[in-house]
Write a structure and sequence with these properties.
The chain is an alpha+beta fold and 215 residues long. It starts with 6 loop residues before the first helix and ends in a 5-residue tail after the last strand. The chain has helices at 7-32, 174-177; strands spanning 62-63, 77-79, 83-86, 100-105, 109-111, 115-117, 123-130, 136-145, 151-158, 165-166, 170-171, 187-196, 201-210. It has 2 helices and 13 strands; from the N terminus they run αβββββββββββαββ.
Length: 215
């Protein structure tokens, strides 16, 4: 025989269930609330410039720590014959001409120092050339710390000739970091550059991130 609840009892039961669900859901919502995360790496307070104005790119950019290769490379990792060498790329807009760049031969790899990024940091780009066997350079973003994903992701592969030229814009995938939209959090990232194939002699210089706003 079915169990039947009359109208008054049914109303009281529904009200009791609704109250119980509301009470039980409140702690879960609080547990999911998180404070904004801050990065201790440099970058989020670095003044921005229109570094790629020479390439008709009017966006503002912030140089990555050591990204111009002229000063200290503290925090950078150079392996497999990669090294700072004489001969920099032509000066980006608003900067002095450099005297050094990073050589990355086949079998080598370069990882940049950690850098702070915040909301509205959608892209990065740099200058590159390859004076060796034609091939590609794999570019990865390392998500070291932040409110969401930590790990690594391939941002793309680039090709280049023997003449210095700016790369296209490569995405930082803000949604993965959890610092997109109205987020006030910061994340810590780094970049890794690895030649694909044999016989390549890649050089990179002037690694910049687009902060999407003026500081």
């Amino acid at each position: 025989m079915p169990f039947i609840i009359d109208g008054r009892r049914k109303g009281r039961l529904i009200a009791a269930i609704a109250t119980a669900l509301a009470l039980s859901s409140t702690p879960a919502m609080a547990a999911n609330a998180t404070e904004p995360t801050d990065s201790t790496a440099p970058g989020c307070s670095t003044p921005a410039t229109q570094a790629f104005l020479f390439a008709n790119d009017r966006k503002d950019y912030v140089v990555a720590p050591g990204g111009d290769v002229e000063g200290s490379l503290a925090g950078w990792s150079l392996t497999g014959g990669a090294a700072a060498v004489p001969g920099g790329a032509p000066a980006v807009t608003g900067a002095a001409a450099g005297t050094k760049s990073l050589l990355i031969p086949s079998g080598g790899s370069v990882t940049s120092a950690p850098m702070c990024v915040g909301a509205h940091s959608p892209f990065f780009r740099f200058l590159a050339r390859n004076t060796g066997t034609p091939g590609t350079l794999k570019v990865e973003v390392l998500y070291l710390d932040g409110p969401a994903f930590t790990g690594e992701r391939e941002a793309g592969t680039i090709t280049a000739g023997t003449t210095w030229a700016p790369t296209g814009r490569l995405s930082l995938s803000q949604g993965i970091m959890g610092v997109n939209g109205s987020s006030t959090s910061q994340a810590t990232i780094a970049f890794r550059f690895t030649p694909v194939g044999t016989g390549a002699r890649w050089q990179i210089d002037d690694v910049y991130v687009d902060p999407y706003r003026r500081f």
